[in-house]
């Protein structure tokens, strides 16, 4: 089965996970909107990745624009976020609000802890985060404002195992440099 990884993030956490996944599964990785149409069209399965900002998935618009094509394929989705992973109800709400029902029904979701480096944020994101934290406090929610970095390759293991199981990918690693060498 052929696969492809398509992601959208802002400050590198989603990109980092997408690259690790690409290496582990031997799949091409594309930022959303820059995917090679031929690679997308022939893919049997798609692993989508997105971070989340003020309750909205970065990949939301791309998903809507490509819904018809996606519904032909096996789907996996990793969401990179600041919400603690034990806040399951909140995480599931993000999916309900952002992912069209037909995609949701055929997709396996995985939540991955993200990264926040306050001084690297744009001024609009700093402001949004402050407003979000203020509004969240009123509702009794905690929105983390301090820097954190939980982006670790080990968090991908469950997703990697699921993809390997469902798409029959052997777990032998391929040395990509060997593929580039001419056949003698
Ligand atoms: C302005 C702002 C808003 C955010 N909103 C949310 C949110 O609603 N829910 C959440 O779980 N994480 C939220 N986060 C945390 C990001 O999803 C997290 O930092 C993620 O790692 C970003 O990944 P990226 O660098 O690939 O975009 C927010 C971060 C910022 C800076």
From TrEMBL:
It comes from the Bacteria. SUPFAM superfamilies: Flavoproteins (SSF52218). InterPro entries: Flavodoxin_dom, Flavoprotein-like_sf. Residues 4-140 form the Flavodoxin domain. This is Protoporphyrinogen IX oxidase, menaquinone-dependent (Flavodoxin domain). It comes from Chitinophaga rupis.
